Amino acid sequence: MYKIAKENLSALFQAIAGEQELYLPVNNNGQVNFAAWTEGADVDLDTLKSVKSPKDAFFPQSENLYTVKTEDKKLKVEPEALKDQDFVVFGMKACDVKGIEVLDKVFLVDPVDTFYAARRKHGTIVVMACHEPEETCFCKVFGIDCADPVADVATWMIDGELYWKALTEKGEALTAKVAGLLTDADETKVEEEKKAIRAIVEKLPYSDLSLEGWNGDVLLEKFNSPIWEKLYKPCLACGTCTFVCPTCQCYDIKDYNTGSGVQRYRCWDSCMYSDFTMMAHGNNRTSQMQRFRQRFMHKLVYFPANNDGMYSCVGCGRCVEKCPSALNIVKVVKAFEEQGGEN
Amino acid sequence: MSIENNNEFRPKIVAFCCNWCSYAGADLAGSSRLAYPADVKIIRVPCSCRVNPMFILRAFEKGADGVILCGCHPGDCHYTTGNYYARRRMTLLFSMLDYIGVENGRTRVEWVSAAEGVKFSQTMNEFVEKIHSLGKNVRLGDLRCKN
Amino acid sequence: MQELVSRAKELLANGTVERVLGWKAGDLPYNPEPAYFYVEEDFDNFVYNGFCGANLSKYMIEASKMEGKTLVFLKPCDTYSFNQLIKEHRVDREKAYIIGVGCKGKLDIEKAKKAGIKGIESVAGADMSDACDTLTFQTIYGEKTCAYADVMLERCHVCKGKEHVISDEVIGESNDTKDAERFAEVEKIEAMSPEEKFAFFQKELSKCIRCNACRNVCPACSCRKCVFDSTKFDSAQKANVDSFEEKMFHVIRAFHVAGRCTDCGECSRVCPQGIPLHLFNRKFIKDINEFYGEYQAGADTDSRGPLTNFTFDDVEPSIVTERG
User: How crowded is residue A143: how many other Cβ atoms within 10 Å of its Cβ?
Assistant: First the structure.
């Protein structure tokens, strides 16, 4: 266990960024999001949640796959290079890390997504414990301990000092690189902090949310429930929930005509959009109710059915905060709970 | 003739011309052997009113350095009133482009009748010169089109 | 609030309306959602307070396609949107029973959170019966207070007024919340150099995540199929590239509602990245006022909109260059 004073963090970031790319929460015009560290960047480690989840670091919102150019009347295809440089993501939260675990289940199984796999291979994650969890958090429901997060390096911000603990080989390697800036520390304060965080988590309004009855066995029962017809009504069909979500993994592949060639890129897609899964067959979901249902069925029923009970929601609460109509996954779960007897 | 100034900036100019007046005006300029730079690419539209603001942005996206819209003189529209609507739309669009920091000389509207071959060629010469002085459009182009 | 509920129940019971469109209390103290109420029991969780910012006129587009009348609660600014929708034949006046509700300024919980208030368990001071000058938050981390006006939505600081431009009846009092000039921010940007303007918008728009919330919440954006949703359209509405797509989207989005935008401020309210989208719409409104005479979309149901109208001696587009 090591520690570093908060005022020395910029030196730490500089040291890390000197060797490899560093992504961390940066305040850009009042909004905190993960971005590459630059000299003078307004790093914000106090805001609990970035607007977008840090999944961008591994699965960017849009990325090029390959470029087609014409040269001497011949087509030339240039695949986009895979990530081959190490990078560090600093300041992810326990729920964000769990989100990456969910993405792994999708992108690292056969057929492996090479772009994602390359980033996973080269990325080192420094996770931060949640000093002051908020009312929208419900990671506890998914068995996540935000007081004792697990990644390559775990850190705790306590009284102006960042406590640092390497947990994996990658983490050890990163620690070795910045060892000069770290001083030895004992774990007493960290243990106290963990207790304090857990005590707060118990008090959060959503921490007693029950996911009983949400699994693959109830697929049709849930699918055919009349509740969806009521629930979706305020939904405006925007993509906010899917784009701020740390686990949403759907993407679309499109071609961009550059005038002198074509760029094939992929970008996040949202099941809330009317052209979602339109692609080749043109037989996609036709009503907003169906699209709305899809999102929650996927997170709470289909995904666990295919992944040994693992939900593809991590309780970060971003959708709770950002939905323009104040809809969210918690309201869905609660609505089913209330109607439990009837369905 | 040698090709020396290969790297000289040649602006790409898109000119939307209405079918009834301005395109005929361009035709007249041609048949009267009035010169205007080949940097101007004309797109014929049924009426100046046909030009959707998106056309203009799209032209800039794909690498245009200047966009000019030509139509019949107010009062002379083949469809009676089309150019009056176009005038309002373009005024607002140009003002918006100015507002977001696009140099305001890059867009222009000019009324050119079928008899005004001279005006057409003059306008285009002036406009190309203006774009030359402004240089390449970097603010509204799409980075993906740059390579 | 009780008055609203009892009147709604009465109108449901006597068969005047089939359903009621209002707000339902959320599971947190500040997240009520738009909801339909059909029977008396539904009203148990009816709510109307400072957090009911959603403009229900948008939902009336769908409600107009349903059987029978819908009772809808509209705040003064929402009624402008409704009027505008009538003008565009997007809603059916005959199918709406409008109760104008009082408004004391609506709240933006993000502003409270930005001020460091977190772990919110309850909020006091946001009800319509309250004085609405101070908000008291009970949080996990202790009690916090802040001035009501500091947490108000931007649009309420430039409030259009207390009058409902269309309604069948009005219940409740409104406060005068206007304390800023509507075009002040626009003028500030206009005074910048082109470089500064460009840098300003580049910085704001680079935050855009293309979620389309601004478009979908907009009562004026009532197209059944948006041009940005077309699969045949060259630029996907979902790509997020820092160079052009965002500018294209936001300029065109604002242009498509120019002359129809009532400045209800929903776009800025819902933006997850806090982009001041009203700055685009307001620029168009300001220009329209200057070039073609004062115009407030939604103030009436029969005038011609500025972009579907013209005069012979309108200003030429060159005004943009000439005014410097």
Answer: 11
Angle, helices C245-256 vs B82-99, to 10°: value is 130
Interchain proximity B96–C243, CB inside 8 Å: no
> So what's the pLDDT on residue B1?
43
Residue C292's CB is within 10 A of a number of other CB atoms, namely: 19
Q: Which amino acid is at A101?
A: E
* Sheet containing C70-74: order of strands: C33-37, C19-24, C70-74, C96-101, C169-171
| pLDDT 10s digits, A24-68 | 999 998 999 999 999 889 999 999 999 999 999 999 999 999 999
H/E run at residue A230: helix A227-231
CA proximity to C59, closest of C78, C39, C38: C78
Residues in B closer than 8 angstroms to C202, CB to CB, are 101
pLDDT tens track for A94-126: 999 999 999 999 999 999 999 999 999 999 999
Give Cα separations from C53 to A132, A142, C50, C270 (angstroms).
28, 32, 7, 10
Give ipTM to 2 decimals. Answer: 0.91
Hey, CA dihedral for C123, C58, C247, A317, is it positive or negative?
A: positive
Question: What number of helices (H) and strands (E) belong to chain A?
Answer: 12, 12
pLDDT of residue C235: 58
Record the tokens describing residue B81, joined without a space: 């009133």
d(CA C73, CA A101): 45
Q: Are A288 and A232 in contact, with CB atoms under 8 Å apart? A: yes
Contacts with B93 (C-beta within 8 Å, 6 or more apart), sequence order: B53, B56, B107, C251, C255
User: B107: exposed, middle or buried (C-beta count within 10 Å: 0-12, 13-18, 19+)?
Assistant: buried
Residue with tokens 């107010």: B74
Whose structure tokens read 């867009």? Answer: B107
Q: Does residue A284 belong to the interface with chain B, where contact is any CB pair within 8 Å?
A: no
List CB contacts of C260: < 8 A, sequence separation 6 or more.
C84, C88, C220, C297, C305, C307
Say if residue B4's pLDDT is above 60. no
pLDDT for the residue C236: 59
Q: Which two tokens stand for residue A49?
A: 């949640």
Instruction: Name the phi and psi angles at A308, rounded to 5.
Output: 50, 45
Structure tokens of A101? 């675990």
Max CA distance (Å), chain B:
50
Please report the pLDDT score of residue B147 as a whole number.
52
Which residues of chain A register pLDDT less than 50? 342-343
Any B CB within 8 A of A256 CB: yes
CA dist C12 to A332, C71, C77, Å?
27, 9, 25
Q: Do A263 and B63 touch (CB under 8 A)?
A: no
Mutation target for C interface from A26, A27, A31, A64: give the one with most C CBs within 10 A.
A31
Distance, CA of C264 to CA of C82 (rounded, Å): 11
Rounded distance between C-alpha atoms, residue B25 and residue B13, angstroms:
17
Q: Is the pTM of this model over 0.90?
A: yes
Residues 12-51 of B with CB under 8 A from C: none
3-state secondary structure string across A271-309? CCCCCCCCCCCCCCCCCHHHHHHHHHHHHHHHHHHHCCC
CB contact under 8 A, A259 and B62: yes
The two structure tokens encoding residue A31: 């909004």
Is the bond preceding A304 in cis, omega lying within 30 degrees of 0? no
Q: What is the pLDDT of residue C26?
A: 92
Transcribe B62-118 into DSSP letters.
TT-SEEEEEEPPTT-BTTBSHHHHHHHHHHHHHHHHHHTT--GGGEEEEE--TT-HH
Sheet with C120-124, strands from edge to edge, namely C120-124, C134-139, C142-147
Q: Are A239 and C215 in contact (CB under 8 A)?
A: no
